[in-house]
Amino acid sequence: MGYETYQQSPIYTERAVGLSRLTAAVKKVVDDDKIPVILGGEHSLTPFAVKACADKYHDLSVLQLDAHADLRDSYRGSKHSHACAARRLLEIAPLVQAGVRSLSREEWDFAKSTGQLGKIHWAGKIKPEKIVEQLSDNVYLTIDVDVFDPAVVRSTGTPEPGGLLWTETLNLLTKICEKVKVVGFDVVELSPQKGDLASDFTAAKLIYKLMGLAA
């Protein structure tokens, strides 16, 4: 199904309405000078939350922790797929990416041609001070749990080996929150599996820790 056909489908209409409600809900929170915390769900929800934050914080930048670049312009007929989240974010605010270890040729070519390649911090080569230098004072943080190595979180749709470990990630987030103001964040792409409580508890603890750091 092509994108134009998909746009006319009931599924697209229902999805678009739901995501626009998310923008409105986040706007109410940020207008009240509070920090929105969004739990997903697909990564495709992030641009709709960021839009509300960008309307309030005009110097907003986004930090994405993710195993994947998510820089496709469209995927399976949709421009709002989880594989397009970062591409849509770049239409709203500057983006810094960390933990990436998988991307397509299309994404590589796009990142190289636009200069985004210089804002991708590959897993295994992350230096927090370099990331901070590329962020503005007000930052929206989006975390796809597949940024973690599968040994830490395996209950996610597209796990990738070679990811971040728990202490490494907490150290990075602590340093980020010390240097910039996190005005909102989301944690997405947890896909609970029967018998794997460790992934669920890790995601919950990450959210708990981030709430404290951001505050």
Q: What structural keywords apply?
A:
215 residues; alpha/beta; Arginase, Chain A; six-stranded parallel β-sheet; 6 strands; 42% helix; disordered N terminus
The gist of it:
The protein is α/β, with parallel strands linked by helices and 215 residues long. The chain contains 8 helices and 6 strands; from the N terminus they run H-H-E-H-E-H-E-H-E-H-E-H-E-H. It has a 6-stranded parallel sheet with strand order 1-6-5-2-3-4, sandwiched between helices.
Give an overview of the whole structure:
The structure is a single chain. The chain has 215 residues and is an alpha/beta fold. The longest helix has 22 residues. The protein has eight helices and six strands. The N terminus is likely disordered. It has a six-stranded parallel beta sheet with strand order 1-6-5-2-3-4, sandwiched between helices. Helix 7 runs parallel beside helix 8. Helices cover 42% and strands 15% of the residues. The protein has one domain: 3-Layer(aba) Sandwich (Arginase, Chain A).
